[in-house]
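Sanity check

After download, print the first record. It should look like this:
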Amino acid sequence: MDHSEVTQVSYAKPWRSYEEQLDQLAARGLQADDPERALDCLKRIGYYRLSGYWFAFRERSGPVVILDASGKKPEKVKVESLVLDAFKPGTTLQHAVDLYVFDKQLRMLVLDALERIEVALRVDISHTLGKLDSFAYLKPELFHEEFSRKLDKDSGLSRHHEWLGKHAQLINRSREEFVRHNKTRYGLPLAIWVACEVWDFGTLSTLFAGMREPEQDVIASRYGISSGRVFASWLRSLNYLRNVCAHHSRLWNRNIVDQPKLPAATELPWIAPFETSAHARSRCFLLLCLSRHLLHTINPHSSWASRMKAHLQAFPDLTHLGLNLAGMGAPADWEACW
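Expected C-alpha cells:
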C-alpha cells in the first residue's frame, strides 16, 4: 500500500502532566492518601503501566447489548458489561501500586523457576537425542514428519528448516568462550550437548515439539507424565509464561492464550480442580503448578515452592474491591493442595 493511502486515525487523548494525571484519577474516584508519593509512583512506573492494575478496580455497567456501526442491533446478540471510567468506592492509587509490586515479585519468582527448568531441559533433550547421534538436531529423519518434512505453503520451508535458522543465529551471536573454543578446535557443527547451551526456552520447546513420540515419552516420563505430546504443550505454555515475564508484562490475572493440555487426574491428582474450571485453566496459577511439579523432579530440595506459597499468601488485601487469588485461577483450597 502506498503511504499516501494510509489514513491517520485521529487520536484525541492529550498529553497530561503528572499532576493532571493525578487530578483526573481523583475525579474518577481513585484517591491518593499521600499525593507526593502518588506523584512519585506515576513518575517511576507510569500512568499507562499502572492502568493495567487499576483496570480491575473500575466500575462495570449492567448488562448491555452493543449496537453495530449503523446503530442497529447485531444479528448475533452478545450481552456484556462495559468498563466505566469511575472507580469502585474505597479505591486508592496505593492499591494499584501494591498489586503492581506483587506482580513484579511474582514474575521474578517465576523466572527463577523457569531458569532451572530450562537448564534441566537442555540436559534432557541433548542427552536423549545425543544418544541417537552427536549431531541429531541436524538430522530430519530423527524428528516427527510434521516437523521435518511438511513444508509451509508460503515459505516452502519445514519447521525444522526454520528452527535451524534460529539455531544458526544463536550460534553466530554467541560470545561464549565455550562456543569459540569448540569452533576453533572442532569446527562446525557443534555437538548437541554443546549447541544446546545457547538455546533459549523457545528454541528448546520448539525442538521438543518436533521430536518423535518415543523420545518425547522418555523425557516426559522422567516428570511422571506418560504422554510426550502433553508434555510438549506444557513446554509451549511455559515458554509463553517466560515471554510474559521477560517483557515485564502484567501476569497475575492475564488470560493465558497458549493453554497446556492436561493429563488425567488419575495420573496427577493435583490436576483435578482445573479439569472442571475453564477460568482456572486460563489463568497463571495452573502454570505455577506446572512449574512446581517440574521443579520437584529437577530439585526435590528446592525452596521455590515454599517461597512461592509465601508470596501468594501475601497477596494485597483487596477483598473490599472484589479481588483475591481467584483472579489468578487459584482454587479456594489452594493452600492445602500446594
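If your output differs, re-run the checksum step. Summary of this record's structure: The chain has a mean pLDDT of 94.
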